[in-house]
Amino acid sequence: MSFKEKYARLGERYERIDGPLERFFDPLRRKAAGFVSGKVLEVGVGTGFMLPYYPRDIELHAIDAVPEMLEAARRRARELGLNARFYIMEAENLEFPDESFDTIVSTFVFCTVPDPERAMREVYRVLKAGGRAVFLEHTRSDCRLINWLFLKPLDVFLGFLLEDDTLRETHRLVREYFEVEHEESHYKGIVRLIVARKPKKS
């Protein structure tokens, strides 16, 4: 079963799984939203956990590959009075012209997308030169003991449940494409906030 089928089955019940963790992620989401401006794309909006934190003066566009998740996000946006456009779309195939956005946001997405390298190329493509990419992601820990005793067992469970890969090194992948301006490692590197720029054209 693909990750899209698993998330579709969960629908809004996904919030019961991830919701308890939000007290840990809430301050990081708020901080991530502070780097956002202009015309913004959120890649993998899910049920819309990031929506309450966005500034109201941005032009927000959001995509997700799972229609059931996207519909939950759309309802949340209406409840918040947030003006946003939603699209059923995969991160690996963003149906936007080159250099369409001032800011791109990804929160806990690159642990799930089947082809993170291709998805990162797409983020790079649709971001304007000099634009900002903001990543809040699960990553492999800096501590080997944590990887073996915590992340590997969690990886088996979440892999079965959601096709999540908690041991990906998204922080290293970001560095291959963008100029990192700011990086924070939390919980021994299990979660990282990365703010990066697409280089301006020479």
From TrEMBL:
Keywords: Ubiquinone. It holds the Pfam family Methyltransf_11. Residues 41-135 form the Methyltransferase type domain. SUPFAM superfamilies: S-adenosyl-L-methionine-dependent methyltransferases. GO terms for molecular function: S-adenosylmethionine-dependent methyltransferase activity. It comes from the Archaea. This is Ubiquinone biosynthesis protein. It comes from Thermococcus siculi. The lineage of its organism: Archaea, Methanobacteriati, Methanobacteriota, Thermococci, Thermococcales.
